[in-house]
Amino acid sequence: MFHAENVIIGEESSRISSAIFILLCLVPIFSTVLFGGVDNATWIFISVFWAAIVLLWLAETWKGRGFLFNPSSLQIPVIGLLVIGLVQILPLGGLWIADDSLSVTPLHTLSLEPYATRLFVTRLAVYLVFFAACLAFINNERRLKKVVYVVIIFGALMAFFGILQRLANPDAIYGIRGTPQAIPFGPFVNQHHFAAFMQMTGGVTLGLLFDKKMGKERRVLLATAVVIMGVACVLTSSRGGLLGFVSVLMFVWLLHFMTGKLADKRAEGAGSSGGIYRKIAAATAGIALVAVIFGVVLFIGGNDSLLRGVGVVNADADLSSGRFHFWPIAMKIFLEHPIIGAGFDAFGVAFTKHDTWSGQLRVEQAHNDYLQTLADAGLAGFVCIAAFIFLLFKKGLDTIAKTDGLLRDAAVGALAGCFGILIHSFFDFPLRTPSNAFFFLLLCAIATVPLKSVRSSSARRDHSINGL
What we know:
The protein is mainly α. It has 16 helices and four strands.
């Protein structure tokens, strides 16, 4: 028996269901704290959490409550990527080598790096179950409110920690994890991916901040959190990160402008001066936030980070950081494997054939997730990504149009956070950091789950009773 989300709104949660919800909050937090989840050792713990979610989900079904599942079409593109990965690692035939010393014939797969592809597929299966569980168990307004505040508070704490770490300039993350080939920030090995994390948590925070019904005390706290996140983002010196954060701010303002405009037309008329004043105030607040963030960065000595973030760098430096070399090669790999790609996470192997550099450093990523998807998974994978993005914004905007209050603000902020990291993905690979992938899927669920406000539902029910 299957239950969709909108069928169980308002139902009392079981202890098992509550335990699953807690695990869904812990997985992205835990993976973030442990260096973004990039180490294989971290995945031992993530796998334990994943197994616990699966077992508890089965136990919930066994208790006779039915298999709780949200049939959201957003899961279909993820399943499509999983199928592509499985096809890439199938042993489709022998690779004959003229060498009698081999006792067995090596197996040939479509992936140029079958081990890396198998690992990618395994992680993708974990992401799929996590996403499906988020869609199924964030099933009422109370849980949505809790997870939204968890994202905001955790994001602000990580931003504050990241700022302190940058000012202290330690030799290793937590003093124990060295990063000889990257510049860390906060718990992340890659500073650019920390900036992407700030885009997502900052988006959710901004979604609530621009709500005209938000109380003054909470508004001050939210504004403080946004400033801390913005300062941390600028201090990463990530140009893509700064562009994504500004995109988040503009996206939130635009959505609140459009939804506020519709509300003004319904309540006060299209030419309401009050609505115009609110829009001017919102725009002024947005500009003030940016000014405060830049001011704080300059005050604490982040001049160099700010200058690099806005694109003012040494004239002798490569403004593209090698991207103008990586991107054409990614297209060449795609043209060689146009249908199903060279294999997930096989870019490092495929790259060497076309690399004209010295070869001292192995390039593992194309620094553009869309081009790398073409190289790794061909047109089939790119169609899945495009379909996911289309469905995300279609469902997210539909949720915003049909809800109000906290539900709408959370959807606005979550969709804005997703928008920011998708913009950042044109210049980097932030979603290939596991903790960012978990948070991204969590935000996708927040933006698209078809919830109804308990208060508004109760009010309509009381109105109906009074009208009888």
